[in-house]
């Protein structure tokens, strides 16, 4: 297995990594799937009106991007990611095997959802998820725009996520999800 430092991106790190990288490849993470399962009370929502953002939850697999970080940048990138992703402790950083599109296996630095955290929402009914996404606005924008950016970038990369697309369609649909769900 490649000994380089790789960071796995499955959501906003795809379209806004915020760090310098030496190489980027499509990659698959087995044993975890991308899900709108995290209540956002900072970046894409507030404590009063939380939004919903992505987390990696147990089971399945997830296709995303892997960024290789140059050796002299590893510590600064880890520090940046710690500050960005660990605002509330809802994620756990782990090293997990990734399969790059070219067939190589690498150790990826990955942030997975903490199921025991108060912000872990789990698998919500689509209407409830749409309500949270519709209402969420935080320090970096709306939960809806976060979802739309993720879907658009996954589509551009050929990494289509049908569940996220259906959820975005529900959020943007003809009815107001806030009124539709009690």
Automatic annotation (TrEMBL):
Keyword line: Lyase, Transferase
Enzyme Commission identifier(s): 4.3.2.7
GO molecular function list: glutathione specific gamma-glutamylcyclotransferase activity; transferase activity
CC annotations in GO: cytoplasm
InterPro entries tied to this protein: ChaC, GGCT-like, GGCT-like_sf
Top-level taxon of the source organism: Bacteria
EC class name: lyase
Record Gene3D superfamilies: Gamma-glutamyl cyclotransferase-like
Pfam families in the record: ChaC
GO BP of this protein: glutathione catabolic process
PANTHER family named among the record's database cross-references: CATION TRANSPORT PROTEIN CHAC-RELATED, GLUTATHIONE-SPECIFIC GAMMA-GLUTAMYLCYCLOTRANSFERASE 2
Name under which the protein is recorded: glutathione-specific gamma-glutamylcyclotransferase
